[in-house]
Design goal:
Elements: H1 6-20, H2 26-42, H3 49-68, H4 72-109, H5 127-142, H6 152-160, H7 173-181, H8 189-222, H9 230-261, H10 279-285, H11 288-302, H12 309-327, H13 331-352, H14 360-379, H15 383-393, H16 402-409, H17 412-426, H18 439-453
Helix pairs in contact: 1-2, 2-6, 3-4, 3-5, 3-6, 4-5, 8-9, 8-17, 8-18, 9-14, 9-15, 11-12, 12-13, 13-14, 14-15
C-alpha cells in the first residue's frame, strides 16, 4: 500500500487512527497495530507476510536465547545461526539471480555451459529495511546494549510498524522499546499537529515535486541514455538528484509524521545532505539511519579508523561496497558503493594530511558534483547505460542545438527544478522548522493535501521501495 494513494489516505489511515486511539489496553492496541501493519504490507502481495513473520519469530527467539545464556560460545553460535537465517533469506530473494548470472557468465567465458539455475523470484518490498531492523535488535542483545522485548507482540509491532516498514528509516529497537512500555493512552495535540505538518510536507515533496520532475525530465531522458548530449545529460543527472532527494526525504517525513500520529517518535533520517561540505559530511546527513547502521554494525567491527590509513581506507571501501550492494543486486550499485567508498577514503587521507577546502561554497559545490555523478550510476540500469550518460556529460556526444535546449529549458517543471534547488541548498529542513497551530495554517495544509490527493490518479511508488 502506498502512502500516496486513495485507499491509504481515505480509508486505511483514518480507520487505523480511530481504532488505535479507541482501544483500552496496550496489548489490544499493539495487536491491532501489528495486524494493521500486516494488512498494509500484504496489500502489495499477501504471500510475503509469512516471510516477515518467520524472520520476526526467528529474531525474537534468538534474542531471548542469547539473553538467557552467559556461555559466550553458545551466544556466538546463536547469533551466527540467526544472521545466517536473515541474510540467507535476503540472499535468496535479492541476490541469488545476480550471483547466478555472473557465475554463468564467467563459465561461458571459460568455455563451459551455465551451471547455476536462476530463480526469478519477486523481490519482497522493504525486505532490506525490516531485515536490518531485526538484525540490529539481535546484535544489540548480543552486545548487551538492550534488553529483549518483553513479549512477542511488542517485537512484532516494532518490526512491522507500517510507517517505517517498507522504506525506513531503519529504526532500532533501542529507539522504541521505552515507547512501547509507556504507550500513550491519549493523542497529544502538539504531537498530532507536528505529525500532520510532517506528513503533508512529505507528501508535497513526493507528489508535487519529485513525481513531476521525474515525469518531465528523469523518465524521458534516461529511457534512451545513448541518445543524450551534453545539456540533456546534465539535466537528467540534476533532475534525478532532486527527484531522489524529494522522493526519499518525503517518505521519511511522512513516516515521522505517521509515527507521531500514533504517539511514537522516529529518528531523523535527513539533515540537508546537499549542504554537505565533504563526502563524509554528506553521509552523516543522507539516509542517516542507514549510514549509522553501516557505521555501527560494519565499519566499526571491521576496525573503523583505529588502524593505519590503509586499513581505514580498506574498511571504508568494504563498508560502502556492502552498502551499495544493500541497495540492489546490480553492478551499478556495487560501483556506486565503491565510488562513495573511494570518496570517503580520499577525504580521510586529505583530512589527515591537513588539506581542506577553505571556502564553504566551493567545498559544497565539489561535494554536490561528486554526489550528482554518483547518482548517474544509481539511476541507470547497466554500466553500459551509465557510460553513455557520462560520455554525454563529458561533451563527447556533442551539445544540443539552441532549439532543443529551449524546448528542454522552457518547461513548467523547470520552475520546480529551480525551486527544488533553492530549497535543498538554502532552506531549513523539515526538522528545523517551527510548526504553528492556527486556523490559517490548517487551511493551508488542507489545501496542499487536496492538491496532492488530486494527483493520486497515477500510482507512483517511492524509489526506495525497490530496495
Amino acid at each position: 500500500m502506498l502512502f500516496n494513494s486513495y485507499v491509504f489516505c481515505l480509508v486505511f489511515l483514518p480507520l487505523v487512527l480511530i481504532v488505535w486511539w479507541s482501544l483500552p489496553s496496550k496489548n489490544a492496541r499493539l495487536a491491532f497495530l501489528t495486524l494493521a501493519s500486516y494488512v498494509f504490507y500484504g496489500w502489495w502481495d499477501v504471500r510475503f507476510v509469512p516471510l516477515m513473520i518467520l524472520s520476526t519469530s526467528a529474531d525474537y527467539i534468538a534474542g531471548k536465547m542469547i539473553h538467557k545464556t552467559e556461555d559466550q560460545r553458545r551466544r556466538t553460535f546463536i547469533l551466527i545461526v540467526l544472521l545466517t537465517i536473515n541474510l540467507g533469506i535476503l540472499a535468496v530473494f535479492k541476490y541469488w539471480d545476480f550471483i547466478a548470472t555472473n557465475l554463468n557468465a564467467a563459465a561461458h567465458l571459460a568455455g563451459h555451459r551455465p551451471f547455476v539455475a536462476l530463480f526469478h523470484l519477486v523481490l519482497p518490498v522493504g525486505i532490506s529495511f525490516y531485515t536490518f531492523n531485526s538484525i540490529s535488535y539481535t546484535i544489540d542483545i548480543y552486545r548487551r546494549r538492550v534488553e529483549p522485548a518483553r513479549n512477542f507482540l511488542e517485537f512484532a509491532t516494532f518490526v512491522a510498524l507500517f510507517p517505517h516498514l517498507v522504506a525506513g528509516p531503519i529504526v532500532r529497537y533501542s529507539d522504541l522499546h521505552e515507547q512501547f512500555e509507556r504507550v500513550h493512552r491519549r493523542l497529544h495535540t502538539g504531537e498530532a499537529s507536528v505529525g500532520i505538518w510532517f506528513f503533508v510536507i512529505g507528501m508535497a515533496k513526493k507528489v508535487l515535486v519529485a513525481d513531476h520532475i521525474a515525469a518531465t525530465f528523469v523518465q524521458p531522458l534516461f529511457v534512451a541514455p545513448d541518445a543524450l548530449k551534453a545539456f540533456s545529460a546534465w539535466l537528467a543527472a540534476l533532475a534525478y538528484t532532486l527527484q531522489i532527494y524529494f522522493d526519499f526525504s518525503g517518505y521519511s517525513d511522512m513516516a515521522v509524521g505517521l509515527a507521531l500520529l500514533l504517539g511514537f517518535h522516529f529518528p531523523q533520517n535527513f539533515n540537508s545532505p546537499y549542504k554537505a561540505l565533504n563526502i563524509s559530511d554528506f553521509w552523516r546527513r543522507w539516509h542517516m539511519s542507514l549510514s549509522f547502521w553501516l557505521r555501527d554494525y560494519l565499519f566499526i567491527p571491521l576496525g573503523g579508523s583505529r588502524g593505519t590509513k590503509l586499513q581505514t581506507a580498506r574498511n571504508l571501501l568494504i563498508t560502502m561496497f556492502l552498502g551499495g550492494l544493500w541497495h540492489g543486486a546490480s553492478w551499478t550499485f556495487v560501483i556506486w558503493g565503491l565510488f562513495h567508498g573511494a570518496g570517503l577514503a580520499g577525504h580521510a587521507i586529505f583530512k589527515n594530511a591537513g588539506l581542506a577546502i577553505r571556502r564553504r561554497w566551493l567545498a559544497t559545490a565539489i561535494t554536490f558534483l561528486f554526489v550528482v555523478i554518483g547518482w548517474v550510476l544509481f539511476r541507470t540500469d547497466s554500466l553500459q547505460s551509465a557510460g553513455h550518460v557520462f560520455a554525454a556529460m563529458a561533451g563527447l556526444r556533442g551539445i544540443e542545438g539552441v532549439a532543443a535546449i529551449r524546448v528542454l529549458a522552457v518547461n513548467k517543471a523547470m520552475l520546480l527544478m529551480i525551486v527544488g534547488t533553492v530549497l535543498v541548498f538554502a532552506a531549513p529542513n523539515t526538522w528545523e522548522l517551527h510548526y504553528p497551530r492556527s486556523r490559517k495554517w490548517a487551511f493551508v495544509l488542507a489545501a496542499v493535501m487536496i492538491l496532492c490527493v488530486l494527483d493520486f490518479a497515477t500510482p507512483s511508488p517511492f524509489l526506495y521501495f525497490q530496495f
